[in-house]
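2024-03-11 09:14:02 INFO receiving multi-entity request
2024-03-11 09:14:02 INFO entity count = two
2024-03-11 09:14:03 INFO echoing inputs for audit
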Amino acid sequence: MSESDFIQNLREGTREAYAQLLEQYQQKVFHTSMSFVPNKEDAEDVAQEVFVEVYRSIHKFKGGSKLSTWIYRITVNKSLEFLRRKNTKKRFAFVQSIFGNDVPLDKTAFFTEVNHPGVLLERKEDHAVLMSAINKLPDAQRVVFTLHKIDDKSYKEISEITEKSISSVESLMFRAKRNLQKILGEFYKNRFQ
Amino acid sequence: MDRNKEKERKIDELIENAGTGTKIPVSPFFKDRVLDVLFTKEEVIPTANGWFTLQLQLWTLGLILCMNVLGFYQITKMNYDEQLDQFAASYQWVEEEPLSNLK
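2024-03-11 09:21:47 INFO inference complete, emitting structure
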């Protein structure tokens, strides 16, 4: 079946078409959302939101890019949305704690529990530190760095997903690394004195 | 100096090996869960009085309240004699002059 036929089936909204879509993309979408949100339960919630969004918006998909690229774009946006929501909740809890209300303050270094099952125990702390540093990057740099370094996407794939040229992606990657070096340098300053 | 180099090496290593290298499998029930979310139609619970909408209920409540206020006003406005006259008149006990005039 060609991609356009498959998209047509998705537009018709049949259960079989979506079962096939999930079969094909569930692992990929989950892996990408796990790169942004390093917690299995949260990443699954994000992945679910992605498929719901595909179901709702498939009629808007004009076919200007590959279906996979469009789905990855939704995944990146949904992951960033999730992280923003978490950050807002954390800020709210912080304000509440100042005013003495009984909302428990999340004291973790990251905005969500870093519990990537693929990270070895001895690397868990380093991973949490890195994720916290990535969270401080501007969105564009964060997306490029995460997709390339954590999700193993090529510059070409990233340029398609983010709708930026390859040279822009390279430049963003360079700036992201430089900023991470600064942020992590500050963090490890005391440890290596 | 050595400590600085060690720090830089640690940071570079962290950045270069950011990926976990392990693919975590999605939960086996994920597909079914998402399909259920997509294809389970929202159950519409039919109300016993579907036509009696919330707006209509509010209007009815307002109307009842108005009638109560009006009725209460009427009751307090009339005095006992007038009420007695009215009562007697309705049973045609008094034809020529009101019962209250007999006092």
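2024-03-11 09:21:48 INFO post-check: The two ends of chain A are 62 Å apart (CA to CA).
2024-03-11 09:21:48 INFO post-check: The CA atoms of residues 159 and 169 of chain A lie 6 Å apart.
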